[in-house]
Design brief:
CATH topology: Metallo-beta-lactamase, Chain A
CATH architecture: 4-Layer Sandwich
Oligomer: single chain
Shape: globular
Radius of gyration: 21 Å
CATH class: Alpha Beta
């Protein structure tokens, strides 16, 4: 893990712009060929981030390896049915590879695997975490959520919102497969005779899998590398003492070892070239966030007070959850470095202060 000062010193003075070979995504229920044997599919999402990119790779014997599934919704199912009967009708799906457990990536995994009689391929921690959350119905789940956000500094109305929402993961998952073909960092998936190396991400999810094919010069980056935004790097109630930002920065270092002209296929936004530029931009983004977080801790502050420094706009409940998780990730990183301390106030709410 590089020190913050080392990352700061390595920040480039100027960066070449990203190159986007495709200026428009495929239309609904259509595909765009982005490289030989690789097709691009786009599915809608009912959030501010309103889409996800999925990928279909030509496989052996007329097969088709699908990468990610889309959200567990009737709309996404209908679009898949149109695709399978139309633009993808000439190929038989052979497997489904999921980059990580989030509902826009694994929400229809169970439905697709059952309907197409194929196996889910994913890292074990992603599958296990997703299956755990999908099955979770206990009262202890809600109690832990409320406890976590109370310590952060949520007010009574916000805590009631946490309590009433419950487990939002379950409602966005059609069904979670009961079995998985497990993969891990360094494994190679053979798809149509080409080797796709699994490169573990980090920070955004437990064991995020990126897929790199040197022969094709293509990286399927999932959410780990996005062209316009940073993926959410957050601390969540299930792992309240985690320090995910170090994992994310380490993953950036791994991905930066790939060739600069790699065609990056992200889960959101447009495909691009300029991997090293984007890595440098993401490093600089989090350095700036860390510097602002540290400055906010000159006096004892709650995580919510720091959040207001980092996020100036109004946030709805959905965005507030993400912003809280991101704020904690930066605070925990500074705690890990020994530059910020934390202790509970008389009301049980965490107070952070610069050491």
């Amino acid at each position: 893990m590089q020190r913050l000062t080392e990352l700061s010193e390595s920040r480039p003075v100027s960066l070449p712009p990203l190159i986007h070979p495709f200026d428009q995504p495929p239309a609904s229920a259509q595909v765009t060929v982005v490289a030989p044997g690789i097709r691009w599919i786009r599915m809608p999402l009912p959030f501010a981030l309103d889409h996800i990119n999925l990928w279909a790779l030509d496989d052996d014997n007329g097969g088709l390896a699908l990468v990610d599934s889309g959200l567990g919704s009737d709309e996404t199912k209908a679009l898949w049915q149109t695709l399978l009967a139309g633009p993808l009708a000439g190929s038989t799906p052979s497997r489904l590879v999921a980059t990580h457990f989030h509902p826009d990536h694994m929400g229809l995994a169970g439905w697709l695997c059952q309907r197409l009689d194929i196996e889910l391929t994913a890292t074990l921690r992603e599958w296990l975490f997703g299956r755990m959350l999908w099955l979770e119905e206990s009262e202890e789940f809600n109690a832990n959520q409320v406890r976590h956000y109370r310590r952060i500094g949520f007010d009574a109305a916000q805590l009631e919102g946490v309590r009433s929402r419950g487990n939002t993961y379950r409602v966005r998952i059609e069904q979670m497969p009961v079995r998985v073909v497990g993969i891990r960092h360094g494994d190679n998936l053979t798809i149509a005779g080409r080797q796709w190396r699994v490169i573990e991400g980090g920070g955004h999810s437990p064991e995020h899998a990126c897929l790199y094919c040197a022969e094709a010069g293509v990286l399927i980056s999932g959410d780990q590398i996005l062209p316009r935004i940073s993926p959410i790097v957050g601390v969540w109630p299930q792992q309240p003492e985690s320090e995910p930002l170090s994992l994310f920065l380490d993953a950036l270092t791994r991905l930066n070892e790939l060739p600069e002209d790699t065609l990056v296929l992200p889960s959101h936004g447009l495909p691009f070239r300029g991997l090293h530029t984007r890595v440098a931009e993401l490093q600089a983004h989090h350095i700036e966030r860390l510097e602002r977080t540290l400055a906010a801790c000159d006096q004892p502050v709650t995580a919510i007070q720091v959040l207001r420094v980092l996020f100036k706009r109004e946030l709805d409940a959905h965005q507030m959850g993400f912003a809280t998780a991101e704020t904690l990730a930066h605070l925990h990183h500074l705690m890990h470095r020994g530059t910020v301390t934390r202790e509970a106030g008389d009301d049980g709410v965490w107070q952070f202060r610069r050491r």
